[in-house]
Specification:
Helices cover 32% and strands 25% of the residues. It is an alpha/beta fold. It folds into three domains: 246 residues, P-loop containing nucleotide triphosphate hydrolases (Rossmann fold); 169 residues, P-loop containing nucleotide triphosphate hydrolases (Rossmann fold, 3-Layer(aba) Sandwich), CATH 3.40.50.300; 77 residues, no CATH class. The strands form five sheets. The chain has a six-stranded mixed sheet with strand order 6-7-8-3-9-10, with helices on both faces. Strand 14 and strand 15 form a beta hairpin. The longest helix is centred in the middle third of the chain and has 16 residues. The radius of gyration is 25 Å and the shape is globular.
């Protein structure tokens, strides 16, 4: 990798400062990029990564600092200025117009016109094929872009950047919606761009991807640049310490002793071509981590256990007895709960207040009267308040609409709902995604406390530090199959990262 990289930065941001009311978002940050490199930009949510990118893109104006390209100071006052300087930005929500053709999306808005000032399909296809270093798209260029798989849409957007001769392409969490195979295809595309002398700024929180694709990494923490380092020869623990300022062992609660009682047993669970013969046991008081790249089958496994998806084969046993789940209500009856990855769409009813969300899965125990049971409003309030206090939800009160809460407090409401249901098995799918650092630590403490009380925990997370820091055992999934199960001293960040890099 490194032999194709220029030794001299052609892009430099120096001394960047940005203040918002009551908050310094960036404090004297330096950042540079070299031709032909993949430079990872990482940091916790709220660290300042997005603010830096928005300043470079011309969406924000820095309060102090300078930007240099090829050693010459430049002014970036708008996105157009940024584009003219050879900078391109690809966000998580791809800027694809689904009804327009692939060629139209790539060339947008600079369509070629004939001498009659008419845009033709043939001219657009010819123009796309003439772009230097264009990435191959496995589809007719006249096909509506909305019909393409996500990875092909990614290629279309990258080709749009190449069409205007961009020198740096900023990619924000590019693998968040890609399968394992698509991730590999994206990395091949990145290698193609690198060999053409293009630079990639790769914004991600997935450590295994940083080690797999990046040449250098810059870490931002609490609005300041912590440092820039070569990825080659770096240990995962080193990078983690740069991100959080503490050793891994100092972040997570002490692990409790696992009990002998088996709460959940999964035997040869399968679904289509996604999951194949997955088997494991979950003990009381155990935190069982599930690690795997996007598309490895992690979320499908969670949804199968919770009855939210139909299994094609295998069985699930709860407390030693075979249980058939046709829907989530069956799972809830068996004291199994799921804290989903998308809490806003799958974990909460946003139009309801905290009180109603907390008691939603436990309405039976809030009824009174035998002939015509009705909901006891007093019981509902008292029970909701109990778990609201237990999880330390920060809100104006039980009646505040959950849509108005922060991400961390929304997650606490979801957790309160399942605590209220008295679940014996709790599945956490990306429990700390999109929440601030302080809320993360609160969630970690709650997960560890539940395990100490004998609850069985299945923890699915793309943050491998969470998996290594919290789990007693770790299942590594690869292509829908169990690659290995780590136990005891094997559960460490370096081992997990190494196994995923080898996938």
């Amino acid at each position: 990798m490194m032999d194709t990289i220029s030794k001299t930065p052609f892009f430099e941001a120096k001394g960047i400062v940005k203040d918002f009311p009551g908050q310094r978002a960036l404090d004297d940050v330096d950042f540079d990029v070299r031709a032909g490199e993949v430079h990872a930009l990482i940091g916790e949510n709220g660290a300042g990564k997005s603010t830096l990118i928005k300043i470079i893109a011309g969406l924000y104006k820095a309060d102090r600092g300078s930007i240099f390209i090829d050693g010459k100071e430049c002014s970036i006052a708008s996105p157009k200025d940024s584009q003219n300087l050879g900078l391109a930005f690809i966000h998580q929500e791809l800027n694809i117009i689904p009804t327009l053709s692939v060629a139209e999306n790539i060339l947008l808005p600079n369509y070629p016109r004939n001498r009659f000032n008419i845009v033709t399909k043939s001219a657009m296809v010819k123009a796309v094929k003439s772009i230097p270093y264009v990435l191959n798209i496995d589809a007719d260029l006249t096909t509506p872009a909305g019909q393409l798989p996500v990875i092909q849409q990614w290629k279309a957007i990258i080709n749009r950047a190449l069409a205007v001769n961009s020198r740096i392409i900023f990619m924000d969490e590019p693998t968040s919606s890609l399968t394992h195979e698509e991730v590999n295809e994206l990395f091949k595309s990145i290698e193609h761009l690198r060999s053409a002398g293009k630079a990639i700024v790769y914004v991600s929180h997935r450590m295994e991807e940083v080690f797999r694709v990046a040449d250098r990494v810059t870490v931002i923490r609490d609005a300041r640049k912590v440092g820039t380092a070569e990825v080659a020869g770096m240990e995962p623990q080193q990078l983690y310490k740069m991100m959080l300022g503490r050793e891994l062992r100092d972040i997570y609660p002490q692990k409790n002793k696992v009990q002998d009682t088996v709460l959940l047993e999964v035997n040869n669970l399968s679904r289509d071509n996604i999951l194949h013969n997955v088997s494991f046991k979950l003990h009381a008081g155990e935190i069982l981590g599930i690690a795997g790249l996007v598309g490895s089958g992690r979320t499908v496994l969670a949804r199968l256990i919770f009855g939210a998806m139909r299994k094609d084969g295998g069985e699930i046993k709860v407390n030693g007895k075979v249980a058939a789940f046709s829907n989530p209500m069956d799972a809830i009856e068996h004291k199994i709960a799921l804290v989903p990855e998308d809490r806003r769409k799958q974990g909460l009813i946003l139009s309801m207040d905290s009180k109603k969300n907390i008691t939603l899965a436990s309405l039976k125990k809030l009824l009174h009267g035998s002939f015509l049971p009705i909901l006891s409003r007093n019981k509902e309030k008292n029970v909701a308040h109990q778990y609201y206090e237990r999880t330390k939800v920060k809100a104006s009160g039980l009646n505040q609409c959950v849509a108005d809460l922060s991400g961390g407090n929304q997650q606490k409401v979801v957790l309160s709902k399942w605590l209220c249901s008295e679940a014996h098995v709790l599945i956490f799918d990306e429990p700390t995604r999109g929440i601030d650092v302080g809320a993360k630590f609160a969630i970690y403490e709650m997960i560890a406390d539940l395990a100490r009380q004998g609850t069985g925990i299945i923890l699915i997370s793309s943050d491998l530090t969470e998996v290594a820091g919290l789990a007693h055992r770790v299942i590594v999934l690869d292509g829908g199959e169990i690659k290995t199960i780590l136990d005891g001293d094997q559960v460490d960040l370096k081992t997990i990262t190494g196994l995923l890099l080898a996938s």
